[in-house]
Amino acid sequence: MSQGYTPAQRWLHWIIAALILPMILAGLVMVQSGLPRGLQNALFIGHKNIGTLLLILVTLRLVLRLRRGAPALPDTIPTLQRRIAEASHAALYALMLLLPLSGYIRVRAGGFPIEALDKLGLPSFVPRSDTLATAAKTVHEYGGYALMALLLAHIGAAIHHGMRRDGLWARIWPPQG
Ligand code: HEM
């Protein structure tokens, strides 16, 4: 078990946080009907391409987390709270992976572009299939709601620990370590 998150882990945490929140907002807005076409296109393009970048960043973060672990929680944290923290962090990782993956599958199986990957000449890794696209769309939508609920709980817990000044913030902030 390590003593603190590494600067790479901290930077990744804050970069991913700064990208995921606008991604959720863009996702919710861009599916509304009646939006000006130009705005909707821009939101879709931003959402698909930044989402794909997030898939890479989250994978990197997960690899670091598995190799490097997490710093031990202070002894003052009760066992039940520890278990809840561990389970919710595991669920956050799972959803942070599931969202960009299901988004990628929804778009590629539906036969749509991902502009940055297309420019790089990267082919689709999933077959064209309307059934697969529809299933991925459902997973993406409900996964998005689950992620929003967990993020709210996560941010609530962070504010709680910040107000108690129990040292948990120092594990992840400032990003440079
Ligand atoms: C962490 C990354 C991501 C988050 C948090 C996220 C979140 C969301 C949310 C909240 C919605 C609205 C769902 C609804 O109410 O219908 C949405 C829709 C959508 N997302 Fe994502 N998304 C992510 C990554 C991606 C990626 C990587 C792609 C594609 C490359 C993508 C493509 C789409 C598409 C096409 C929709 C519209 C769904 C439809 O109606 O067909 N998303 N996303």
From TrEMBL:
Subcellular location: Cell membrane
InterPro entries the UniProt entry points to: Cyt_b561_bac/Ni-Hgenase, Cytochrome_b561_oxidase, Di-haem_cyt_TM
Limits of the Cytochrome b561 bacterial/Ni-hydrogenase domain: 5-174
Signal peptide: none
Cofactors (names): heme b
Pfam families: Ni_hydr_CYTB
Keyword Protein biosynthesis applies: no
Sequence intervals crossing the membrane: 12-31, 43-64, 84-105, 142-163
Keyword tags: Cell membrane, Electron transport, Heme, Iron, Membrane, Metal-binding, Transmembrane, Transmembrane helix, Transport
Membrane topology term: Multi-pass membrane protein
Family: Belongs to the cytochrome b561 family.
Protein name stated in the entry: Cytochrome b/b6 domain-containing protein
Species, as recorded: Fuscovulum ytuae
